[in-house]
Amino acid sequence: xxxxxxxxxxxxxxxxxxxxxxxAYRDPRVPWYGKLFAALVVAYAxxxxxxxxxxxxxxxxxxxxxxxxxxxxxxxRMIPSPVLADCRERARRKFHASPSRAATxxxxxVWMGIIIILLYLLVKSFSGG
Length: 129
Prior knowledge:
The chain contains 5 helices and no strands. The chain is mostly helical. The longest helix has 26 residues, at about 100-125.
């Protein structure tokens, strides 16, 4: 079970770091070459097109496991430290913020509505109506 938790933690960190790069790309304090490289890394990470297609066993996922983290590491070195700190803080707030009560209430109400409609249709179909 520890291996799965580590992979989940790494995936979350990767997601956060990609968001940090996205934020840095939009920051005017980042030099143009840092913006360009950050944009390329983020685009490659979310692109459905890979250098090595995923259907090739083992090698297909190698680019996702090696190239994306390597690209993130290189891009982070091109971003000034204060900008990186600001972007990491913004990413942390975004990913660790709890949902609002209003949003939670809307989700609960939608699911309750779906359940009520399904129950109504189920009762109606068995009652011969």
